[in-house]
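User: Structure please.
Assistant: Input sequence and predicted structure:
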Amino acid sequence: MHDEHGPDGRSAHGAGGRAAGGTGGRAARRRAGDGRAGRRRSPLVVAGRTALALSSALVLLASGVSWAAYNWVSSGLTTSDALNAIGGKDAPKHLDNSVNLLLIGLDSRKDMNGNDLPREFVKDQLHAGSSDIGYYNTNTLILMHIPADGGKVTAFSVPRDDYVQTFNGDGSSQGHFKIKEAYANAYTVAHDKLSAQGVKGADLESRSREAGREATLATVQNFLQVPIDHFAEVNLLGFYDIAKVLQPIEVCLKHPVKDRYSGADFPAGRQQLDPKQALAFVRQRHGLDGGDLDRTHRQQAFISSVTHKLKSQGVFTDLGKLQGLFDVVKKDLVIDSKFDVLDFAQQATNLTGGNVVFHTLPIAGFATRNRESVNLVDEAKIRSIVQSLIGGKPGQAGGPGTPAPSPSAKAAPATVDVLNGAGRAKPGAAADTLKALAALGYTAGRADNAAARQQTAVRYGAGAQEAARQIADRMGTGAPVSSASVPAGHVQVILGGDFTGPPATGTTAPPTAPETSADTSKKDASPAPVPSDAFAGDSVKEGGIPCVN
């Protein structure tokens, strides 16, 4: 797996080198005092921040023992209306009264008002580089599905480098980026626009972050094709604060590790960590066979350890013990404005009693896109897995804006021309791609050569926008571009050096449970079995101290 981070934890690529209709890093570089914003991202404690998001959410759920407790907790919370932007007519629909909660770990070394965290604190206590290179990637995304009947909770970790079509809150496409960049792209555009209008200070930061939240929610909802009902967002400082309140945190490692990048230096077996060590535990990826994917399992194990401690120490039943934790929640956590503590009170036992299973969604390989190392994904396979486990039908409803088609989606009418700009290294690529697209239902045009180019692009003439969008999504390119040089009704695909192969023409059918009843409505709403090897690595069951790499 290609590693895009240097010894100091900074990204070798960063958002400074990309462009997404104005969403690239140019604005970020203008705001960076030392001009290094293009190398801004480092592997933060995204896992720990997710642990805070989950732990904080659980505290809120369990605190619904009375209206008095509810009012006490909710009076100082930071809330967001971002969900209102993605609930349009095209949003995926529920089959029952289940709840989907998205946990967001924000990759930022800034406080709620956009101020840098103290330099020495970030460098010495967090061991995570300096504050001036932090930005707004969502390096942790976990969707938790809470069944309507109070059964087992299923959680899906989305690898942060998955290369997908990202969206803004209004449904407009940003193009194809790592899923973690949807927040930063939208934040940058909103920040520049609002700043030009004279908005300043905390209001500027708040409104820019709201745009980032909307984009993240829209992107994840579209990617997984499931509705998002609630979310919780937490930043780097929040993890540290929660780790201080709950320390020591017990974890378990299968093997001893020592990593100078993250500061991880631990023996094998069970052990207790202070806040700084906990950060190193969830931050490490160097020296791990699975890299980022192994780090995702560390995130899941950390969440399990935190929730196990919350339950075993009786925190949920002792309001006195909760007070210190609530102070952290109010300072560092953002939740959606529709989050009703009392509605969730009955789920607290499920979320902390060993009834959560964490799965890491699979990737299809690695590649380079926009000069960055990314995870390639099979969107149809991922949607099939998610829908099978939570009891739905893949592709039964569209996502926000212009959702990506599944392999079984009907091809929009268009004639497709494919030009090979990938050079002699990939002979016959144009003909192979044209054949694959024709098999998907598009009218075959011509296959020819083109001038050498680095990136694959899709252009379209009048009346062929929908087909171009479908094809661009299938091939993992940037957003298609209208061109007067392309004939009406035609889509032109120009293959570049990044081309890896023609789009798949097969249909991935979801795993289905054996039908035991004539009641098909119940069958459709029931989770179906999914092979354990369908995920990236072993799944982690919450409720104890699981051992991980």
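The longest strand covers residues 137-146.
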